Amino acid sequence: QSQEQELRLNRAYLETTEYLDATYVAEHATLQIIRGQRGFLLTGNPRYLVPYREGKEELAGALTRLRAFSWAGHGKHEELERLVVQSEAYMLVQNEIVGFANSGNRETAM
């Protein structure tokens, strides 16, 4: 293999690894959000909001990374952008639900 081919392969490997890591972080963060929200809604205990908030931060970072891949011309632009937009919409709904519960309106939140 030529040095140019080897560099291209290494770059593709690193980009693929970065993409897979971002998708893993997004999945993990989403599960943290769900667990935290569910725990808070069921118990009213604010300690469950810690993983919820951490998950929100992680998800925001992962979505930024995925959006960067989307715009960097790595193919699947429409699917990646749709995933990011749907995830952001999901977070808005989750924030609203937690907001209702946090203000004492747990029935509306449920």
Which characteristics define this entry?
110 residues; 85% helix; elongated
Unreliable spans are none
Q: What's the number of extended β-strand segments?
A: 0
Radius of gyration: 18 Å
What integer is the average pLDDT?
86
Q: Helical proportion? A: over 70%
Structural class: mainly alpha
CA distance, first residue to last residue: 60 Å
Shape: elongated
- SS element count, helices: 4
Tell me about the biggest sheet? Answer: none
Order of helices and strands: HHHH
Strand fraction band? under 5%
Map the helices and strands.
Elements: H1 3-43, H2 49-71, H3 77-102, H4 106-109
Helix pairs in contact: 1-2, 1-3, 2-3
Task: Give a structural overview.
By secondary structure, this protein is mainly alpha-helical. It is 85% helix and 0% strand. The protein has four helices and no strands. The protein has helices at 3-43, 49-71, 77-102, 106-109. α1 packs antiparallel against α2, α1 (3-43) runs parallel beside α3 and α2 runs antiparallel to α3 (77-102). The mean pLDDT is 86.
In brief:
This protein is mostly helical and 110 residues long. Helices cover 85% and strands 0% of the residues.
